[in-house]
Specification:
Radius of gyration: 23 Å
CATH class of the largest domain: Mainly Alpha
Oligomer: single chain
Shape: elongated
Distance between the termini: 27 Å
Number of helices: 13
Largest sheet: 5 strands, mixed, barrel
CATH topology of the largest domain: Leucine-rich Repeat Variant
Number of strands: 6
CATH architecture of the largest domain: Alpha Horseshoe
Strand content: 15-25%
Order of helices and strands: HHEEEEEEHHHHHHHHHHH
Strand order of the largest sheet: 1-2-3-5-4
Number of domains: 3
CATH superfamily of the largest domain: Leucine-rich Repeat Variant
Length: 339
């Protein structure tokens, strides 16, 4: 599978770069579970004290942060975080991406090293957030408290901060966020509603898939359509199969079909998707042909659709022909659509 998927990346970057997902796609929950110290607050001051060794751009710096909520670990009311910023939106070769600026608010994932706080990851170790803070939930888990704080951000006066709050809620992946996100979908402007759709989808809410179909039928190059297309590959709910097939059939971009095929072929493996997978054996995109072949093997266990343990271009082409022949002779006459 890596043969095909390794070329499906978010951005065109030098091959030596560490490929990083944009902050809008950050897995907040996973980051918070991995980092030993997690807090949020306002940057009061940033001080640079030298160029990072072996680099001509990245500056070693200290961000002094006024902590307004501690989620995990230990941190005082004021925390000094050592970091380096590469001076570019994507950092340097996928490193040094965090640009702390005074009077901005951040969720920080930190670790203590040699008696000082450093970012848990130099590109994913901090995420921009709204200045709005929710109520202090006594005796609640850090996860519930973080959700309450992000929900408060939906009422921020700054539209950009409201969108960031939706992105963070999506990164928590909690079903309890759905009601608030659906209110944004119903009442917000188009941009906010579309980001709320993405956030809801990340919580596992497949009820937004009809809206997703409408959005992706116009393409998947912009945000949040691109992020939504990527998220489709994570769906594992069998109830989503009809909507996923509808999205696949109406998609006009190149990203969406591959992501839907991954969900159908690798995550869900529902017999109802077999006719759709068979149709994509003739897809003009080689990656889609491969995914369709893999899905048919997993669902039907048909020898004609099974690749050798170490496939190459020739074996993929050969088995695709054999699988097509099996489909035309036998496969299409079976009742795959009966659930």
């Amino acid at each position: 599978m890596g043969l095909v998927l390794c070329v499906l990346v978010l951005f065109v970057v030098p091959l030596w770069s560490r490929l990083m997902s944009p902050p809008s796609m950050a897995d907040v929950r996973a980051l918070a579970e991995q980092a030993p110290i997690v807090f949020r607050g306002r940057v009061a001051e940033v001080r640079a004290f030298g160029v990072k060794p072996h680099h001509t751009i990245a500056l070693d710096s200290i961000a002094k942060i006024e902590v307004d909520r501690l989620y995990r670990g230990k941190a005082g009311s004021h925390a000094s975080v050592y970091f380096a910023y590469g001076g570019l939106p994507t950092g340097i070769n996928g490193h040094y991406c965090i640009d702390f600026q005074p009077d901005t608010y951040w969720l920080v994932f930190a670790v203590e090293k040699n008696g000082r706080l450093e970012l848990f990851d130099d590109c994913e170790g901090a995420l921009a957030i709204s200045s709005r803070l929710g109520s202090n939930l006594k005796d609640a888990s850090w996860l519930a408290q973080m959700e309450a704080d992000f929900l408060a951000g939906l009422d921020d006066r700054d539209p950009a901060a409201r969108i960031v709050s939706m992105q963070r809620l999506g990164g928590l992946k909690l079903a309890s966020s759905r009601d608030a996100l659906h209110r944004v979908i119903a009442e917000g402007d188009e941009t906010q509603a579309n980001w709320a759709v993405y956030a809801a989808l990340r919580t596992g809410d497949i009820s937004v898939l009809p809206r997703v179909k409408e959005m992706l039928s116009a393409g998947d190059l912009r945000s949040p359509e691109r992020e939504i297309a990527f998220e489709l590959q994570n769906i594992s709910d069998r109830k989503a199969v009809p909507d996923l097939i509808a999205i696949l059939e109406s998609a006009t971009g190149d990203l969406t079909p591959s992501r839907v095929l991954i969900a159908l072929a690798e995550k869900i493996k529902d017999p109802r998707s077999v006719p759709t997978l068979a149709a994509h054996l003739s897809d003009s995109r080689e990656g889609s042909q491969y995914l369709a072949l893999e899905g048919l093997k997993s669902i039907t266990h048909e020898t004609a659709c099974t690749l050798p343990d170490e496939p190459n271009a020739q074996s993929v082409e050969r088995q695709t022909r054999r699988c097509k022949a099996w489909w035309e002779a036998k496969g299409k006459f079976q009742a795959w659509t009966q659930n």
